[in-house]
Amino acid sequence: MDNYHHALYPATGPMPAEGPKVVPASTIIIFRKGREAPAPEFLMVQRAKEMRFAGGAAVFPGGRIDPSDRELAAQLAPDADPEIAASQVAGIRETLEETGLVIAMRQPVSPDMAREARAMLFAEESLAPVIERYGWEPHLDALTYYAHWCPPMDKAFDTRFFLHDIGTGAVDIAVDATENTRLFWTSAQNALDMQERGEIALIFPTMRNVERLAGFASPAEAMASAREYPPRRMSARRETIGDEDWVTIPEGRGYPVTRQSVADAQRGGTPFKNVR
């Protein structure tokens, strides 16, 4: 059914040398208990309009994997899949950098400690000295591997999505004004409603994942879906159906919506380049 999605690259693992020259990246869907409705909420970041990637769009926290992330992942989880472990470390680092939120640590972290750690991270540009300074032990298994998206083109982000539940959500967050303009917690349905009203823009992969998350009543249900549909590298493609152009993804991957008109998709961003 979806052989075209695998013709240019493997479904799992690193991109081979002969494949597109992509940028490995990670993004984290961070849940907390809903404040105004029973549905859980997740954290979103509104990108600065000037950013090359997804300028002005609302995305999940995350970013590219640095060499230091791979080095730390090899120390923390030497027997784990190196691509997944490095993605988990990058997601922890990027979340702290972009939001000031420390996630997936075995030790409790106070708001004051998180603020100090964030300042240190900006100075050191690596997570390793930060966790050493505070004696923290990252709990990589607290990040559930959920999805993997990658357009088949050079310079695209080869992005792994993870789920993480912080429970009460009694945390301080603050925007990183160099890349982002706003942080906000929202339920999946509210994010879709905000998109419909024109209050936020969701790029194609984010939109598909928010629609998928809207079908779950709890983070546990979302994590169960990740086990039911093990992540495989996936991309969208453009095709003509009838007289209309569509952006499509494969069926049978756990996504309730598998196509969107090109006109609608482009209102949220260019679907073939934006991957968070």
Short overview:
This protein is of the alpha+beta class. The chain has helices spanning 67-76, 82-99, 111-124, 128-134, 188-196, 204-213, 219-228, 262-267, and strands spanning 23-32, 41-47, 58-59, 62-64, 144-149, 157-165, 180-187, 237-241, 244-248, 259-261.
Write up this protein:
The protein is of the alpha+beta class. It has a single domain, classed as Nucleoside Triphosphate Pyrophosphohydrolase, CATH 3.90.79.10. It is 30% helix and 21% strand. It has 8 helices and 10 strands. The strands form 2 sheets. Strands 1, 2, 3, 4, 5, 6 and 7 form a 7-stranded mixed β-sheet that branches. A hairpin with an 8-residue loop joins strand 1 (23-32) and strand 2 (41-47). It starts with 22 loop residues before the first strand and ends in a 9-residue tail after the last helix. The relative contact order is 0.19. The model is unreliable at 1-6 and 268-276 (pLDDT under 50).
